[in-house]
User: Fold this.
Amino acid sequence: MRRVFGAKKDKEPPPSIQDATVRINQRGDTVDEKIKKLDTELSRYKEQIKNTRPGPAQEAVKARAMRVLKQKRMYEGQRDMLYNQTFNLDQVAFATEGIKDAQQTMSALKSANKELKGIMKTVKIQDIDSLQDEMMDLVDTSNEIQETLGRSYNVPDDIDEEELMGELDALEADMGMETEAGVPSYLQPEPDLEELNLPSAPTGHAAASAGKTNAQAADELGLPAVPHASIRN
Assistant:
């Protein structure tokens, strides 16, 4: 049967947008190369026209340059057409990628929506409220326990302001005495003579008579002399 009717050929898959874009870009590169060659040839003809005198020779160069210019215009038209096709393919590719992104986004949203619904079935507002109330009660109970454990024993609470100020004054006085007692004697200030109530030093005749008396009272060795009355007795 295959020999009579032949085998069915597999159809080739249609070209993708990427394949078509690559092919058109390759054709555009080929056309650009041809246009560059024609530009080089036109530049050479331009120099020949400048260097050739008017006449049949110059007209022949101009005719060849005109033919090359027509070819260049034809290739430029083809290049513009290829550029337009590439632009259209790029737009289609961009739209296709946008639709694919939208499909993926919708699929992700559907999956997330389904998962969220399943989670919401296990979570109830009433359960959350009950849990919050229970937590608040536990915190209050914990605070009461801490206050109870931190309660002081045998501490009078009925202390008025006068007792407090008296206690503070006494404490300040005690601290001042401890500070003065802790300072060495050579660092303490000298006492005032008026505060000690000491007798003043003798002046004038009193000091001279006192000196004579002391001099007379000393013997030859510098010891105090014994009064004669006491010797007689």
User: Anything to note?
Assistant: Residues 212-218, 229-233 have pLDDT under 50 and may be disordered. Helices lie at 2-5, 17-51, 56-122, 125-149, 161-181, 193-196, 205-216, 228-232. The longest helix spans residues 56-122.
